[in-house]
Every structure is written in C-alpha cells, then in structure tokens.
Amino acid sequence: MKEVTDKPQRGIQSVEVAGRILDALAKRREPVALSELASAAALSTAQAHTYLVSLTRLGLVKRDALTGYYEPGPLSLRLGLMFVEQQEAYRVAASYAAGLAERIGHSVAVCVAGAQGPTIVRYERGGYPLHVNLHVGTVMSLQTTSTGRVFSAFLDPSQLAAMMEGQGIDRPRIGIDANDTAAPDHAVWQANIDDTRKRGMARSVDMPSPGISSLSVPVRDADGRLQLALTVIGPSGAMDVTWTGDTARELRDAAQRISDALTQSSSAHAL
Question: What is the pTM of this model?
Fold first, then answer.
C-alpha cells in the first residue's frame, strides 16, 4: 500500500501571483491605481499591468475607462455570492426576506459581514420605489446606516475592527473601547451602540440619504453569534419607523424565525 505523504502539490506560479493582485484589490474599499496594486503585490508596474489585462478579460477585475483605476469585476461578485449562498444562514434568510417584503411593501436587505463592511447579499424590492442605488454587493456604512449600527453592536470585535479599518474609521468612533475618548463624537456613537444593544434593533431616519429610512435587526445562531442583519428600507413618509410599530414587529418576527430555524438545524446536525 502506497504511503500518503504531506508533500506540497505542484501549482502554477503565475496563478498565485494573480491571486496576490486580487487579494490586494479585495482589501481596498475603493478603486485602486495600477501603481498601488503593483506595490501591494510586490510586482513592477509593467508586470502587474500584464496580469490585470488577463484578469480584466476574465471579469475578475474591471478598469474604469476615465480614471484607469481597478476594482473587482462581475465574476468576482458572482464567486463571492456563490460562497455566501452556500451558507446556511443565507439560505434560511432568503425566503423569509422575500415574504417580509411582500407583507410590508418595503424593500428588505439581507446583509452579511464583508471585508469592507456589511454587504447586501440579497435584496428584495418592495412596492414603494426608492430613489437610492441599493443592490447586491452594496457595502453599508458602519457610521450612517442602521445596518452598520447592528454590526457595530453585535459583531465579534476582531471582525468589526477589520471592517472599521476598511472604511477608514478610527476605533473609538464606533464605541468599541469605552475608555477611549479620542474622537469628539465618541460619546454619541457609544450611546447609539448601547441603545442598539438594548433594543435589539437600530434605526436610521433620513440617513444616509434624505427621504429614506430603515430599521435593522441582528440574526444570530444558536451560540448567539451574529450571522447577518435583516434590514427594512423605505421612503420616510410611507414607512412606520416607530420602535413598536407594524414594521418593527414584522421585522423582529422574521429575524426570530430565521434564528429559530438556524438553532433547529444546528441541533439536528449535532445528533
């Protein structure tokens, strides 16, 4: 019988170099210049350009025709979504999000933790039109959205710190370190985070876009870990944003049903 060894398998070096470029791109929230990508991937500008030509042809990267900057392409988005769609929390939440949007008439977003911040991975449009550009792949601000406050309040601190770095936010501004008052608005943010934890829900009125409001709640697994945020978004004049209103009640109920389903699934897998 042939003995199995841990000898490293032979790979293709050029593919691994291209992976360094993609990794550098993934760590940035904004389009990146060729020179920056080359430096981050430890390549010369000419070498990086050659790889980027191929990555662009594949759709893994796209180049802005005006600025010449690079950002993730459509194939990168599809691969990322394919990974998310395999996660049990997403599969459970998807059907509940669709039902919630149908019942309340407002748009519903399922958001998960992404490298640069809470990211929409499912977006169900409601009956009310929204004059705001939200879609699958949109990264939500930690500071100005209800979704961001839910992640700030309930996400694992190490994951949150990485998100904050990706959005260029100083740690104290989100209220992770209650003893650090370096930022002038720290007290306000700490109060917002404390309120979100107390209510189990966050709210944004006319922020970050005037005329648009939202309510967001956490969805946690059997161990209490944040899996995703469920967010209702609608026109400020048509959406009930009161803490105890119909929208809030429906949202809480949907989130609880998703959490219950995750708990039951976890228990079944343990048998």
Answer: 0.77
